[in-house]
Structure formats: C-alpha cells, structure tokens
Write a structure and sequence with these properties.
This protein is an alpha/beta fold. It is about 30% helix and about 20% strand. The chain has two domains: about 160 residues, Rossmann fold (3-Layer(aba) Sandwich); about 70 residues, Alpha-Beta Plaits, CATH 3.30.70. The site of magnesium ion has 7 residues, from loops.
Length: about 250
C-alpha cells in the first residue's frame, strides 16, 4: 500500500443491497465493543440473530474474519456457525470443513514459556494461546507495552515468524495469509464467487481486507475514528455497524 492510496474517509455507506454482495466482517471493534480482556466478550443475542438473518438473506455469502481462534469465535456467536477466517486467515472454515495452515506447535514451546514467565509478573498481562499463534494482551497493564512489544518482536525474529501488533496486543504468528488473502480465497469459491465483496473492520490488519475487496470490485468500510485508510466509507462505532447491517432486513 502506498501513501497515495490512503484517504481519510468520512462518508457512511449507503444501505446495503443484499442481492449481489458478500459480507466479510471483523468481530472485535466491529460487531463487538473492544473489551478489557478477550474472554470478556461473550454471546450477545442481537448480534447472533442479526448474523443468522444476514446469512439467510445472503444465501450464505457472509464470513467472519478475525484474529481470534475458531473455538473462541464459536463461543461468542454460540448457535450461529458462519463461514469463518480465524487467527488472521491461518484457519478457514467453509461448508466443506476446516482448513488450518500447517504449523508445528512445538515451535511455540519456548515462546510459550518466555511469554508465560513475562505475564506472571503483572496480573494485567494475559497470554492467549491459539495453538498456532500466541497473543500477549496488555490492555490492563499499559505500562508494560514497550517491554511486551520488544519481547514478542524478539521472539518473532528468533523463530522467523511474524510480529503482529494489534489493539493492546502483541502477537507472534507464523508467516502466512493475511485477511486480504482470506477474502480472495473465499471469493474464488461458492457461494461467494461472482458477488461484490464488502469488508467491514476497524483494525490495521483489516486494510488488507479493504484492498482485496476493492480489487475484486467491492469496497471497504472502516469502523471508528477518522484515519488514513483504503476503505471507501466509515461507520463511527459498533452500534452504527449493527444498525447499518440491520437496515436492509427490516
Ligand atoms: Mg477488530
């Protein structure tokens, strides 16, 4: 992405025309407010009913695209089981089944020990073990941020893995697909193929999704405060996203 491609968008998107689009939705900060700890996000009936109705109206052309693990996404959505790109695209679930990027989990053993020892220092630190990646959360221990970031960056360099920064989280993940690759991969298969992709998200990693959606004839919707982005439209918060997604169903 070059700086020339980035614009600070302000306009909200028009109401969705569900007949020809495919929806790619980030979870945290998009469909759920950012919580102090990742496990503080739980089942919310309005969200799950909305997703269920959208999946029906879109003939299945809806995917959740998140950095969370598949099990965690299923815990939060409870009784609705959409197509999912989990752990930043390292795990994909379609109607055909679950495909996981090949990673030797033993590679993470040392990093698990190092991060566990670091997190034991402060009750505000939390290591989220996604089996094929490790996320160090420091939202409740903001003073630890510089050291947390340095530690995960160092482990990434040592392993030849990637350091993935997030919102008050530093993650160690194997090299592999990003959220844009998930969009391209799903758009090449039924029931997504031929639709117009719309990607909605709030994270820096969602910029890859915005770019992929635009390249495939669709567009991105950034959620949150104004920032330079590849998205074409902006919604100000989670409530605005839910209202916008509910409008074409009413
Ligand atoms: Mg997010």
């Amino acid at each position: 992405m070059s700086a020339a491609d980035l614009v600070s968008v302000v306009e909200p998107p028009a109401p969705l025309a569900l007949g020809r689009i495919a929806l790619f939705l980030d979870l945290d900060g998009t469909l759920a407010p950012i919580a102090p700890r990742p496990d503080a996000v739980g089942y919310e009936p309005r969200r799950s009913r909305l997703l269920e109705r959208l999946i029906g109206a879109l003939d299945g052309r809806l995917a959740i695209v998140s950095g969370r693990s598949l099990a965690d996404i299923d815990r939060i959505l409870a009784d609705v089981h959409p197509v999912v790109s989990a752990v930043h695209g390292l795990v994909i679930r379609t109607a055909e089944g679950v495909a996981t990027s090949t990673v030797d989990p033993r590679q993470l053993d040392r990093a698990r020990q190092v991060l566990g020892a670091f997190a034991a220092r402060d009750p505000g630190l939390l290591v989220e073990d996604k089996e094929i990646s490790l996320a160090l959360h420091y939202r409740l221990a903001p003073a630890c941020e510089p050291e947390a970031v340095r530690l995960v960056e160092g482990l990434a360099a040592e392993l030849g893995w990637e350091f993935q920064p997030g919102r008050a989280v530093a993650e160690l993940r194997p090299p592999g697909p990003d959220k844009g690759d998930s969009v391209r991969r799903l758009m090449a298969t039924a029931p997504f193929a031929g639709a117009v992709p719309v990607f909605v998200g709030d994270d820096i990693t969602d910029e890859d999704g915005f770019r992929a959606a635009a390249e495939l004839g669709g567009f991105g919707v950034v959620v949150g405060a104004r920032r330079d982005t590849l998205a074409s439209y902006r919604l100000k918060d989670v409530a605005a996203v839910l209202d916008w997604l509910e409008r074409p169903l009413s």
